Amino acid sequence: MRRVTIPTTVAALALAAGAAAPAAIAKDRPFRASLSGWTVSFGGDASDCVEVTGPGVSVTTLEGTGWASHLGRVDVWNQYCVDESTGEYGDGVLKLTAANGDVLEGTFSGGVSALPDSGGLSAFQDTYTFTSGGTGRFTTASGSGVENGNYNVGTGEWAMEITGTLDYKRR
Known about the structure:
The chain has one helix at 6-16; strands at 26-44, 57-68, 72-83, 89-98, 103-113, 121-130, 143-152, 158-169. By secondary structure, the chain is mainly β.
């Protein structure tokens, strides 16, 4: 004769009711990324720039690779408006694409960059906000933080670190 205990029966009922798989919920998580890359285009049409405007404003597009928490290895696409005379930049768009194709999208603004040093490096800093509109598990993502990095005006190479938070529904 087979004995069925009360704990076994309760566990079986919980599994049948779906209690073992709680619904996905958004949760504030720390976010970090280390990214680097190169300039793809510089001096693009600035007619869509809103945050940074004026006669010396142009659009710059960057691409690269790196690593980001919650995504792993990523490909990076980044575009922004920059005033070369002041170093101010904004109207930025950031897309991080994970190896499985999920895309985390964000915007950045309030960017300031220093004049290049004797080696051609210009330090920069801005604030970012992750926005809905990504794909996969990042469709409803949100979060914010700070980007810090360096841009080599001679070679077009760049590197940055991102720190902040990320909210998204896990599958």
